[in-house]
Amino acid sequence: MSKNAKDKEKTLERLKSLFGLGKASSPAVPRLEEHAIDLEVLKELGSDCAVAQRLKVIKELTEVVRTRRLAQGAAESLYSLTCDLLNPAHGTEVRHVVLNFYCTLVRAQRDPLDIIRAHCFNLVLDLSLPEDLPLRLELVRALTDNGKCLNLFEEQAGTFLVHWMPEVLSAGRAQELLPLLVNVVRFNSSFLDRATIMGFVQNTCILCCRTNSELDVKKGLELLDSVVGYGMVSAELLGHLVPTACRTVVVAPFSEPSWRLMRNLLGTHLGHRTIGYLCRLLEDRSNACDTSLLKGAVFFVGAALWSPNAVNTLHHTAAGVLPSLGRAVESDRAHPSVAYEAAVCLQWLLGEGAPPLGPVAWDAILNLLGTLLTFPQDQSGGRQLQQMAHELLTRVELLYDQGTFEGSAAHLFELVDQAAPLRPETSLLRLLEFRTRQAELCPLRWASHMAELLERFLNPKMATPAVRLHLLDLLASHRHLCEADELVEKVLLPHVSPLETEPAVAACAVRLLADVLLRDDLSSQHTADLLDLLGKVLVRDWLPAELVALKAAVEGLCHLFQAHVCDGQPTVAVSVLHLLSQHLRQQCQEGSPPAELAPLRLRLVQTMVALRTSALYQVGLCDPATGQVTFSRQLTCTFREGSPCGSSGSVANVQQLCFREAMDALLCCLREETDGSVLSTLLRGLPGLLRDRAVVLCGQFSLRRLSSWLYTHVAGDRHLLDKVRSAGGEALLYPVASALVLYREELDAQSPRWLLHVLESGLACKPAAVLCLRALALAALELRPAMAKVLPDLLQRLAQLSPTVAVSLPVLEFLACLIRVPQLYASFVATQYRKVFAIALPYTNPARFSDVVVALAHHLVALWFLKCRVTFRKDLAPFIMKNLRAQLEPGEEEKRDAAVVKLQEELLATLGDLVAQCSFGSCGAQPRRSGAAAFLLEQGCAQSWLLPGHRLVTITTSGCAGRPARQGLCDRCALFCQEPAPAHGEEMSMQQPQQPPLQQQQQQQQQRRRHQSEAAGRASGLRPLPVTQDDLSLERRGGGGRAGLVLRHVCGCW
Question: Which stretches of sequence are listed as region Disordered (predicted)?
């Protein structure tokens, strides 16, 4: 045999030995030997012996009977010898000893006992003394093996136990009797008739409802469960089983066995009848005070039909049982615990996977929910019940949103409305939407319905801010269903207040009012009422956390103003501008404006600086993005207190708008503002506003205050300067100053000097240098008196300015404008002319500047050289030529084009010839006269001729001794100055008719040359004579065979 075969055989033997199937035989069980009782002992038990002796022997035999097996017939002998001791005459102690002996005998000697069992049972039936009850019960338990065996007394046992139960249970022996009855039902159910079962159930139910012992109730429920489980239940038992289970299930220790009992009962053929019985219990008004009964009945109905452990064999619909649940909780005496169980049932019914419900079932559910919501919270468990009811209502609303709700929506939202103070936000939002849709069905009463909603749900105690916001949004989106005036009168004015304590709600109300003013056609009275409400928002003191309403008011009013200016009601625009101006001034008059209100001031400034007027004085607004201005056809500005500037339409349709409050508010904001963005916006908008003279003049804009403010910011106030820099840079100041240059007649004596000082300071600001230069050029023409005082300092500043391409043309333009105003440089000295040339000469460099700039620079140098005094030219000529040659010389790294170099050389040669001719040709060649010659020729006349080339010949004759009478000329010189006109003039005079002598004399008076007085030249209508004598005064004279140039203003008296 192989090794593997041996291993398999060993394994098989081990398995057989494990289960007792092996070859080894089991050890022999020793048989108990039968014990025979001596005859002497039996004699001592006989009735002839004394009772005490007999009791002693019985006690000795008790141990023998418990441990040994008696011989056949010994048990019967012992019973027959001792049964007489049970006579009540022997006393209780004797009976108890004998009964204990019988109990031991029956338990120890059960197998051979047959006839003795019947005798002992009859003995139990005969004994009736109360003190023997425990031993009788113990003997019955011994006889029946605790109810499992009823041999020899099967027919009598059931009846006996039913009649004996009340006595045993009353004695408090339920814990010994009930397990016996459970075994009787389980092991001997075939011997129990309906009456016996009825007795068991009835007595057990009474015990369960009356005892205070937890163990007794559990044993009783176990007995009832056994009766139901073994199919011995009938319809008559429902009146006992169902109420008992209802009362015990509400007790925590018995809830599980009670539910198991009821579930088993509902699973029988009586299940549907049991549900009906439970419903009858709930509907019976006499049970209204029986809280435990109703509570258990409600629980069983819900748990059996809709819970996760529902009985599948039941097919009751929700519509059939829900009215019973509602009847149980709608009583005035209903306890909150009953309602709580009903709420639990609804949770099961409406939970996940719930079957579809019809309209009848939904109506019953809503009725039940309405009852649950009415329970007060101050009762015991009332708060928890309310919470569950609201959760159920929320669940129904979700089903409504999902479209699975088939009940009455009006009924549902009526419940929501009733419980509104305790409902969540989402529920109230659904309610508002439903009410709004209902109101749409009747447009004639829409305003009344919305007024009711606003009165109820705009109350802070009733709804949260989100609900109130949603209600206002619904009102705004559906207001087209009502006339505008009716909406204002019935809804907005009585119920919508922009002064809500909640900032978000107040802001929404403000936006609604502004939108109504903007889009709806209102009467003047209602418009004024709404504007008054918005005005109250502007003047109210809002906390920093509540500024959203104020921001909404400002934004709404600004938008309203813009809309009504362009195309709307002019009266509304006038009122709104008044409110906005007052608010801006209010913010700035309280000292330092609040930083948190800076966005509001920014919006106000943007609106006010956009004001414009047309040629017909129509008021308009400028779009900052496109620069396009839209004018109103019915709104004009007022020049002074109420007097219109013009009219663009019929007088009846035109409204006058005064800019004064707005302009004062802007100045106040400019003076007090500390926020950078607001100040930056204001400074950027002021130039455009100032270019509109009508706005400035009609608004009586204080140009002096504005000029003073600008001067203060550049005069060394570091705090204000830093504020301007933080607002976007110093460059924002100078466009404002440049715009003020145009207001020559409106400026006082001091303001022009301030403006010029500001513009001069702007030369150091690179972004604003070009603008300041052009403004200074304009100021040279407009502000001559002030410019004459600051011009020397200004030239010094310009001489220090770096010559760059950006400022090249503006600098040259300034010099070109300046040369057209001789009054400004009439008193210049050589140093100041030198500064002018120092300014212009750097721009003659062709390597750095364009040809246009270079040519213009040469042209200006030539003009200014001709304008300077003759005596200064000899000193200025070398300075000019030296700088011109320096500009022509290239730098180390410069590579110039040959054409550029050639052009520069030509310009240099041309200008050099001019400088040489005007400096040395007219002054240096004149011979010096002796004293005698000077005396003779002092009052003589002289005449000069320009010969071909560059030669000038002057012939002077001795003068007369006459006194100068006519503007510094004697009669002779005056007559000499009245020479005839050139040839073409003479021809014209010959063609004209002869004039009278008087007219000739007047004409001669008009043609006299003025040497000294420019004012006289203006008065006579002639061109004013220059103060300085230069070569520009030379004029070509022709005709009469005389060639050359004549110095017309040179005579013997000069």
Answer: 984-1039
